Amino acid sequence: MRVLGIETSCDETALAIVKKNDNGEFEVEKHLLASQVLVHSKFGGVVPEVAAREHIASIFPMLDELGIEKDGQGIDAIAVTAGPGLVPALRIGVELGKVLAWVWKKPLIAVNHLEGHIYSVWAHSTPIFPALCLLVSGGHTELILMKDHGDYEIIGMTRDDAAGEAFDKVAKLLDLGYPGGPAIAKLAEQGNPREIDFPRPMIDTDDYDFSFSGLKTAVKREVAEMSQKAQMAERENIAASFQAAVVETLVTKTMRAVEKYQPKSVILSGGVSANQSLRSSLKEILNKQCPEISFHAPELFLTGDNAIMIAIAGIYHAMKNEFIDPLTLVADPNMRLV
Ligand code: KG4
Ligand code: ZN
Questions:
Q1: For residue 115, which ligand has an atom nearest its CA?
Q2: Near ion ligand 2, which residues have CB within 5 Å?
Q3: Tens digit of pLDDT for each residue in 32-76?
Q4: Mean pLDDT taken over the chain
């Protein structure tokens, strides 16, 4: 089965052709990505209408570049991100998917963006169910118990800011530009993570929820109390101490969920899964405490938004004949996983 994946939920325009071979392995035949990061960095964040305009400018030349026959020959289905995300941005991909499905007479699959992030690890591995997934992105921070393909239970989520959002906001406080995650992670390499004792929000609560807005406020207070000179001198330590607080909170809560739900595998995914400190901390503690549980994180090029993960999630839906009528599909900014 060969599926065309389309992703335009935020600031990356992405197309991919992924094939599921007879041996069950996924083969990425083609994948294209046009990042809008430079455009949005001027505004300090993603501007939805600008994102939509950029998607339109990129997506047709990209479709051309894929070199698919004019009648869609060779493609078995089309998988498109239908939500959650920014409506003006989502609509570009959704409308393209609908038109192609209609003209080529191919089945259409509506993929949830979060589900896409989870399936990013299937590109290179096969987690065993039940799998516990820590999904950390710019808009979401969730602990999800995946009992089978398409069978999700959300066991915890952030009550305010997402982890990636906290990275982006703290980066703004430190004048590091957008997106903040990679910039904070780089700066943190030169800092001392134990220099400032930032709070670990909700780390001891008897649930699997998160809260990162108080941590961001604590950083804001710390920065406000410093002179301009001290801020420059302490930036590395602030970045390292903030990152350590986020990582410790995420890892501690995930391990508590592992203890309770006894999964066979743990999946770390979403944009923040690119963070090396988070990847190595979770992997290390899991290997040490529960060596029988396998750990899966996407390859670095699959941590951010891409269409490969959307195509793979789409293939699993297609195998269960879960298709949608192109005449009824609409972009849903609040699309839920369950
Ligand atoms: O999954 P993603 O590409 O888009 C959403 O679906 O939200 O995630 C983007 C988020 C941004 O907040 C970005 O700052 C964060 O992922 N991020 C990181 C790193 N790389 C990207 N956060 C921490 N460390 C990183 N290395
Ligand atoms: Zn994403």
A1: 2
A2: 137, 305
A3: 999 999 999 889 889 999 999 999 999 999 999 999 999 999 999
A4: 96
Number of the ligand 1 atom closest to the C-alpha atom of 117: 1
Question: What are the start-end ranges of the H helices in the chain?
Answer: 37-41, 48-66, 87-104, 113-119, 163-173, 180-188, 213-224, 228-261, 276-289, 308-319
Q: What is the C-alpha separation between 315 and 332, in angstroms, rounded?
A: 21
Give distance in angstroms: CA of 227 to centre of ligand 2: 36
Query: How many Å separate Cα 161 from the centre of its chain?
Result: 15
Looking at the CA of 140, which ligand is closest? 1
Residue 160 has pLDDT above 90, yes or no: yes
Same fold? 2-119+302-319, 128-297: yes
Over range 243-248, report the average pLDDT: 98
Sorted by sequence, the CB contacts under 8 Å of residue 190 that are 6+ apart come out as 236, 240
CATH 3.40.50.2000 is right for the domain spanning 128-297: no
Pairing of strands 108-112, 141-148: unpaired
Taking the C-alpha atoms of residue 51 and residue 137, their distance in angstroms, rounded to an integer, is 18
Asked whether 85 lines ligand 1 (CB < 6 A), one says: no
pLDDT greater than 90 at residue 215: yes
Model confidence, pTM: 0.97
Task: Count other Cβ atoms within 10 Å, centred on residue 180.
Answer: 24
Distance from Cα 69 to the centre of ligand 1, integer Å: 35
Token pair, residue 66, equals 């894929």
Q: What is the pLDDT of residue 228?
A: 81
pLDDT of residue 229: 82
Which of the four CATH numbers 3.30.450.20, 3.30.420.40, 3.30.70.1450, 3.40.50.300 does domain 2-119+302-319 have?
Answer: 3.30.420.40
Residue 230 has pLDDT above 90, yes or no: no
Task: Tell me, using a 6 A CB cutoff, whether residue 45 lines ligand 1.
Answer: no
The two three-digit tokens of residue 44, written as one number: 């300090």
Ligand 2 centroid, distance to 93 Cα (angstroms): 14
Domain ranges within the chain, ordered by starting residue = 2-119+302-319, 128-297
pLDDT at 115 over 90: yes
